[in-house]
Design brief:
Layout: E1 13-15, H1 18-31, H2 34-46, H3 58-73, H4 77-91, H5 113-130, H6 134-154, H7 174-177, H8 180-190, H9 193-204, H10 213-219, H11 232-249, H12 252-268, H13 286-289, H14 303-320, H15 324-339, E2 348-350, E3 355-357, E4 381-382, E5 388-389, H16 391-405, E6 408-411, E7 414-417, E8 423-428, E9 434-442, H17 443-446, E10 448-455, E11 459-467, E12 475-478, E13 481-483, E14 488-496, E15 501-505, E16 510-515, E17 518-523, E18 526-531, E19 547-548, E20 551-552, E21 554-556, E22 566-571, E23 574-580, E24 595-596, E25 599-600
Parallel strand pairs: 7-11
Antiparallel strand pairs: 1-8, 2-3, 4-5, 6-7, 8-9, 9-10, 10-15, 11-14, 12-13, 12-15, 16-17, 17-18, 17-25, 18-23, 18-24, 19-20, 21-22, 22-23
Length: about 600
């Protein structure tokens, strides 16, 4: 099935904005680290995970996916060479039975074994899509076929086989069932019916013991936090597999199931910063629970949940063209994802080591009430050769790559502009003519955008121009002529000329949200927060904002280095400083580094 929207060719967009800065930071800080990739492959030789029912085998595939998406956004031959060598090294670990795993045969099909095998498929298939060596591509598919043939021989219905739901005691087998998505992807690449049959078997098991998740989502009588298993990350991964099933079969039921699931998650569990799981990494009615401190050591809103939510939304966006999904992706990226970055290499607390250790590129947990960052490393596991890593550190690169990739997408009639990063996009019109878009303005800071079109000759194509839901009185012009602007996509179809200029004025405003006796503030899609490092006053004291004519009384001032926005708000208790959540709490190793989004109100 064709996607409605497609990525632009690799390297087509060159931004000079926050999305590029963060993507490049991860490419250079993490993805080009050969020593790290070597450790990720070594665990497939040593096979240590059966000793502690671990998940070290996930690190390769999680980070390889992010690395390949990063390469799509910013092609880099050094990065490609590292990925090429890593994948070849991983495939060399395949044993004579076809297994590529971090569990020995005697202890397989328990713990996180199927999860690690899933990520072997994920990483290798993402690299396959960017690989330029046809011989290596054939080798990848041959190895993955043997890898899955072994699973088919041992898992399913029949004498001597084990149920997919019994291959892990964790989460009712939900973690194992999430292998559905890469199995479908392997079918897409090979066309071999045995893989589609295996995927159908996994799909029909319903995801976990205790209830069929697909049927629960379809019925819509309970929310995901009320399902028999509530592990947010793994559940969303399983529903991505159901979406992949729709893509190859065209069975509309599964598209509708995923859409209903996404809507249910949005209503019941997505927080103000675009993540979920205020109790560890679990669906827990976070839409309501988000105003209270995490019940266990501050562990809440795992970065793995943020990125998996973004990925599921992004896949639906490209498949359906539903513009409403962009609002959710943007909220997650600008706040939860970018807030998790560790640009100053702060040390992080390890619950396992009961002390601080060298930091990884992504923080694992995102606080919303009075608390510092850096309080733990999610998915922490040590290597026998020294060092350690974590799940959130590996998955984050997929988010920092996907967000720039969706800013401008192509489709059969032209282009969809979902966001407006300063920079240049070079593409080809549906008729094959080269076209460029020079994007400038201050989309995040002021809601102002200008797009200048470059053409060798006049060309007719469509531009779907997104006006966000948060926009107040949006204004749109083409070459100075005012046009009606509505929220959602505005389709501009005309014979475009070289030098044509589109402008958008979106007029974001700081808005106050209230929940459970707490208050928070949002500017466009940017969540604002208080930060002890930026204010001398105690940031957790109650206050009442001053309003005039129904609007908050505040001044937007120049942001400090790294910040997107900065406001001074007048309150009955004095001035309050609000800056973007993503750049709050970054110096968490310092004293008095707590941050807060949900703030007390004066009674």
């Amino acid at each position: 099935m064709d996607y409605k929207y497609q990525y632009l060719p690799a390297g087509a967009a060159k931004y000079q904005s926050i999305v590029d800065a963060h993507a490049q930071f991860i490419i250079n800080k993490q993805l080009k680290d050969r020593a790290l990739w070597k450790k990720f492959v070594e665990v497939f030789v040593e096979r240590p995970d059966h000793n502690d029912l671990g998940w070290r085998g996930e690190y390769f595939g999680k980070m390889m996916r992010g690395a390949c998406l990063s390469y799509r956004y910013a092609p880099d031959e050094e990065l490609y060479g590292i990925l090429f060598d890593t994948v070849k090294g991983l495939l060399d670990t395949q044993d004579e039975q076809g297994r590529i795993t971090t569990y020995v045969v005697e202890k397989e099909f328990c713990g996180w074994d199927m999860w690690t095998r899933k990520y072997v498929l994920v990483g290798c298939l993402y690299f396959y899509d960017i690989c330029t060596d046809e011989g290596v591509k054939a080798h990848i598919l041959a190895c993955l076929e043997r890898h899955v043939d072994y699973l088919i021989a041992h898992i399913g219905v029949g004498e001597g086989k084990i149920s997919i739901l019994d291959t892990s005691a964790w989460w009712g087998g939900l973690n194992s069932s999430s292998i559905l998505e890469p199995i479908v992807e392997l079918y897409k690449h090979t066309g071999k019916q045995k893989f589609l049959d295996f995927a159908k078997y996994i799909l029909d098991q319903g995801g976990c013991h205790g209830g069929n998740l697909l049927e629960l989502a379809e019925a819509g009588e309970v929310y995901p936090y009320q399902y028999p298993q509530v592990k947010a990350y793994e559940m969303m991964s399983y529903f991505e597999g159901a979406l992949a099933w729709y893509e190859v079969t065209g069975q509309e039921r599964y598209l509708h199931i995923v859409e209903k699931f996404v809507q249910a998650v949005r209503e019941s569990d997505i927080t103000i910063i675009g993540c979920a799981g205020c109790t560890h990494e679990l669906f827990d009615h976070s839409a309501v629970a988000q105003t209270e401190p995490a019940p266990d050591r501050g562990i809440m809103q795992e970065t793995c949940v943020t990125v998996t939510w973004m990925r599921l939304l992004e896949r639906l966006l490209r498949l359906t063209g539903n513009v409403a999904l962009v609002q959710d992706i943007e909220r997650s990226a600008y706040n939860a994802l970018y807030g998790s970055l560790n640009p100053f290499n702060q040390t992080q607390y390890s619950f396992e080591d009961k002390g601080y250790v060298a930091g990884v590129p992504f923080d694992s947990y995102s606080p919303l009430t009075y608390q510092p960052r850096g309080i733990g490393i999610g998915g922490y596991k040590k290597f026998s050769t020294g060092g350690y890593y974590g799940c959130c550190a590996c998955i984050g690169a997929a988010g920092t790559a996907l967000f720039p990739l969706i800013q401008v997408l192509s489709y059969d009639k032209g282009f969809a502009f979902n966001g407006y990063q300063n920079g240049t996009v070079c593409a080809t019109t549906p008729s094959g003519a080269p076209v460029s878009f020079e994007i400038s303005g201050a989309y995040v800071q002021e809601g102002k955008v200008q797009i200048r079109i470059g053409l060798d000759a006049p060309a007719r194509f469509a531009i779907n121009l997104r006006v966000p839901e948060w926009s107040h009185a949006p204004a749109l012009t083409v070459n100075g002529e005012g046009l009606e602007a509505v929220k959602g996509y505005n389709q501009l179809g005309k014979l475009w000329q070289d030098g044509d200029v589109i402008t958008l004025s979106l007029h974001p405003e700081v808005e106050r949200c209230t929940l459970n006796g707490k208050q928070a503030f949002v500017y466009g899609n940017i969540v604002l927060a208080r930060d002890e490092q930026k204010e001398p006053a105690h940031i957790n004291l109650p206050f009442t904002p001053v309003t005039a004519d129904g609007r908050l009384v505040l001044d937007q001032i120049d942001p400090a280095a790294g910040e997107m926005v900065r406001f001074v708000m007048q309150t009955n208790q004095g001035q309050v400083l609000l800056t973007d959540y993503a750049w709050c709490g970054k110096l968490w190793n310092k004293e008095h580094s707590a941050i807060a989004v949900w703030l007390p109100m004066e009674v």
